[in-house]
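Quick start: read one record
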Amino acid sequence: MIFFNSHKKTGKKIGQSIKEVLHQPFNSLGKSVPDNFYTDHYIYGFINASTTNLMAFVFGGKDWSQQKKGECIMEALLTIDPSNTLLDFHIDNNFDSTKIQALQNSKNFKQGMNDATTVIGVIYGFLKPDDPDPILKEAKKMAEKTEDMSYMFGGGDRSPNAHLGGCVTMLTLFGYIKKKYLK
């Protein structure tokens, strides 16, 4: 059986997952995501790395054609932000060499990319247990202390990887959002 446009459906799944995580701190306080949220370099880096890592390593898109990868990413970005702000920002920054360079030199963009890679790596078991990432070490301590609350930090499956990934998310993405947007 041939599945047409399954890469686009995958993009929507990826986008929905990322959107739920990004919006969780705001929803828990009854607040809306601010207008400039998706163009924040940290947030964009987190979205960028989450999307590409999930597409390539979790949903099997590593060997897709450039066109399929691009369409999957576009679907994810449109699902995360239906207003097109995120997609427009993505296109604007990926087709201008000066903007690409500025983004790649952005400390916040790099941090968002690194944090997302750590979260995905932990949840899906791609990181080695002895990985030297300082956030991972801190998250392990948090996970030990909050084991009985794993449903809050890692979803309903209560797996150790999901719980630890939830702790990494709390320390990285949620910490950034709290500091910058939920003062």
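The mean pLDDT is 90.
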